[in-house]
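User: Reviewer 2 asked us to show a designed sequence for the structure in our supplementary figure. I'm pasting the structure tokens here. Could you produce the per-position amino acids so we can include them in the response letter?
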């Protein structure tokens, strides 16, 4: 499973990228707001750090305007994936931009039927939002499993990009289901390294080592 990092914080992206943990980046208007930076400028900087797909989201609501915005965003770098919302106009935009050879990430997906439409419109990535479904007492992971089954039934090549990941368990379950990609904030990716028994075991080793009175260096 590929790891995308869901942030526009270039320092966090650089740190994870240096460790080989970053196969791509996803941003959205809320993350651009959080960064406090200009969308073109910060996206260009991210594309200079990461060689994989970097999603940059359009903000228009009509297809004509989304297409124009998408073309402008795609000029930033060859690894831009234009992110469009899963609306009828977003699907039209997906069809046009993917036909022009651009990568397209269809976002804000909350149903298997939406994912089916995105695949038929030529999406490179479909982004089902797990955490936001969990927030309304639905099971976001069920949606990932349903989309996996449907795409495999018909051989759709659209990659399932599991988004709105909030927990380490979301990551494990997405990998078990067979999501192609997961995108998570840096804090969630770092939390994957943690285990209470690792901490406990290391604490015991440190205590015992101190008792030996030895040094390695
Ligand atoms: C994905 O592309 C989105 O930017 C993101 O995963 C949304 O996550 P959230 O629901 O935690 O805001």
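Assistant: Here is a per-position design you can include in the supplement:
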């Amino acid at each position: 499973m590929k790891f995308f990092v869901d942030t526009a914080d270039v320092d966090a992206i650089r740190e994870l990228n240096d460790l080989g943990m970053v196969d791509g980046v996803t941003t959205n208007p809320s993350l651009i707001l959080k960064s406090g930076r200009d969308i073109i400028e910060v996206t260009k900087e991210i594309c200079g750090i990461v060689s994989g797909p970097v999603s940059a989201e359009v903000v228009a609501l009509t297809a004509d305007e989304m297409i124009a915005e998408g073309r402008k965003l795609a000029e930033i770098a060859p690894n831009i994936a234009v992110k469009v919302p899963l609306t009828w106009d977003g699907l039209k935009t997906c069809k046009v931009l993917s036909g022009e050879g651009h990568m397209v990430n269809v976002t804000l997906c909350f149903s298997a039927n939406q994912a089916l439409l995105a695949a038929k419109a030529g999406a490179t990535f479909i982004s089902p939002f797990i955490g936001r479904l969990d927030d309304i007492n639905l099971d976001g992971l069920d949606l990932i499993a349903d989309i996996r089954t449907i795409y495999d039934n018909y051989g759709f090549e659209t990659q399932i990009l599991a988004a709105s990941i909030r927990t380490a368990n979301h990551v494990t379950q997405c990998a078990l289901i067979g999501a192609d990609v997961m995108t998570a904030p840096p804090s969630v990716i770092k939390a994957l390294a943690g285990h209470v028994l690792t901490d406990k075991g290391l604490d015991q080793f440190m205590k015992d080592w101190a008792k030996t009175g030895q040094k390695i260096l």
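For the response letter, you might also mention the following. The CA atoms of residues 105 and 125 lie 5 Å apart. The radius of gyration is 20 Å.
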